[in-house]
Structures are given as C-alpha cells and as structure tokens.
C-alpha cells in the first residue's frame, strides 16, 4: 500500500498496521527512536485520525511499540517478543469495606466494557506494599494503573519508575499533590461544607470532629469545607473541636477519655461529625459505654457513608459518596490515556458531586440508649 489506503477488503487500519510492521522490520524505525505520529500516519496514508489511532493501538497491544507519557511512541526494545497484548490493568487499593468495594466494582465494570483484564492488589495503607505493587505492575507490563493511594508521602521512587516506563496512572478517591497524575475524586470540599450546612440547619452550632486518617487530601479538604461553613454562619472555629487528630486508632479507653473531655466541657458539642462510618461506629459504641443516648444527649453525623453498616439510620445527616462512579470514571480516563485519545499530557483532575442525606430522608432511624441504673 503506497500513499492512499484502499482497494482491498482488508480494513484500513489493518493495512496501515501491516505497512508500519514492514517499516519496523526493515529497520526504518529503531528502538529508542521516536515512531511515526498519528498525524504523520494520517498524512502518509491519507486515512482518518480514528484509523491511525487504531493501527497504533494494535501495535502497542501486540508489543511492537511502547508509549512513554510526555515523550511519544517508540519501537519496543524487542518488538513483538513480550507484548502488552492482554490489555491488563493493575488496580491498587487501600483497606476494605463498602466504599472500596464499590470503587472496585466501578473499575471492574469499565474493564469488562473496554476489554481489559484486571489485577487487584490491596495494600492496607502501607506505602511499602504500595511501592511493591507499583513495581510489580511495571514488571508485569500492565497497560495502566488505577490506584487509591495511601495517605501522606511514600513510594516516590516506585511512582518515578512507573513514569519512566510510560505506564499511565489514574488516582482515585484522593490525590498526591506532590505527584502529577490524573485523579478522580469526590467533591470533598463540598462534602465538609454541605454536611456542616445541613447540621446548622438542623439547629446544631457546636460541632466536634472525629477523624480516622489525617494526612489524606480527602480529609484535609473535608476539614476545610467544614471550617468554611462555620465561618459563613458566623460560628467561632474552636481548635478543640476541629483539631485534626486520629480517633479510631486509639484504644477504647483513650477514645472514651477523648469523648469525656468533649462532653463534660463548658460548651459540649451537640453533634459529633465523624470522618467515616468506621469512626461513627466506634463513637456510637463509646458513647453508649459512657451512658449517653443517641440522639438525645448527642447526635452523630458522617462525612461519608463508608463503614461496616448503613450509617444513615444512626445519623442526623451523612454524605453519600459516588464510589462506583469514581471507579468507572477513573478507568475510562485511564483507557483514554492508554489509547492515546488525550493528546494533552497535562494531568486531568475530575471532581464528582456528593449527596447529603438527612435523617428525614431515611425510611427509619435508630435510637441508641446508654445503660441505666437498675
């Protein structure tokens, strides 16, 4: 085929692919040297952009060329010998629970739709395990990585190795401000602000926060939204109520001491704003152990609905996260990167809306009563 692609029952993309394979075989393009671009394919063979993209995708899937983000497409060191042909995706997650399960369900459904094989790794918040998972993904020549990163810093060398290998990465649920990668997150700033607005509308003006992780971007954004809502309503921001300090990891005696300090102060909170359902469950257990009724003596609210059970019946209000949509959106964004459909190499930051659910919207609610003297 020379110049114009056509005159054959063989699809145009297959004709273009065949010509490019011949060029690679003849030594026209060598490993380490930039390969022909999509635009050049269109001009050389007089074909559409879609045809050029599919021809390049086939060559990449079969291991003849590799894409290096920010650099372009290159002939593989050993063309065709070890392909990334299985179109595999590494999904690296932290922790367990309904939220993470729904994230994974979203990734899985998109993989099935787009024709990718999924490899799953759970790291339980350990940066060393996260680093090993990333390096394993590079070694296994996956097509891309969806990752729910551990809080704080860590695994920087592994992320650098992923970038050198040209493997696209999309972060989900949270992001790393120190790393330039695509990310799909919930609107955590709105979560903190809108939930606080709902609590204020319900009559609460003294709101204490209880946290789980403290270094994740999602947590810090939620705190910023909470503080913003307090200030908008002229409510003083009390450091003792907004301090970013871990609660769930404390032993039960320490947790109860923290609650006793809050509840026996001169201006005790009327509601405890919990980081997630796990913190909320621990707080409910601790409050009952101290003899408090929920609601009655104090109310509970959840900054998200991730937890061991449906938190809404136990709360005055809670945030519902778009967990499954986050996973699906992240996978579709990753697919566009793999397919070379996003020509702009600038990282994309996708923010999805959250939903505030109130006790009035629930089909029922729970009342938890502390022990009484016989």
TrEMBL record:
<dbReference type="Pfam" id="PF00532">
    <property type="entry name" value="Peripla_BP_1"/>
</dbReference>
<dbReference type="GO" id="GO:0000976">
    <property type="term" value="F:transcription cis-regulatory region binding"/>
</dbReference>
<dbReference type="InterPro" id="IPR001761">
    <property type="entry name" value="Peripla_BP/Lac1_sug-bd_dom"/>
</dbReference>
<dbReference type="InterPro" id="IPR036388">
    <property type="entry name" value="WH-like_DNA-bd_sf"/>
</dbReference>
<dbReference type="InterPro" id="IPR036390">
    <property type="entry name" value="WH_DNA-bd_sf"/>
</dbReference>
<keyword id="KW-0238">DNA-binding</keyword>
<keyword id="KW-0804">Transcription</keyword>
<dbReference type="Pfam" id="PF00392">
    <property type="entry name" value="GntR"/>
</dbReference>
<keyword id="KW-0805">Transcription regulation</keyword>
<feature type="domain" description="HTH gntR-type">
    <location>
        <begin position="10"/>
        <end position="78"/>
    </location>
</feature>
<dbReference type="GO" id="GO:0003700">
    <property type="term" value="F:DNA-binding transcription factor activity"/>
</dbReference>
<dbReference type="InterPro" id="IPR028082">
    <property type="entry name" value="Peripla_BP_I"/>
</dbReference>
<protein>
    <submittedName>
        <fullName>LacI family transcriptional regulator</fullName>
    </submittedName>
</protein>
<dbReference type="InterPro" id="IPR000524">
    <property type="entry name" value="Tscrpt_reg_HTH_GntR"/>
</dbReference>
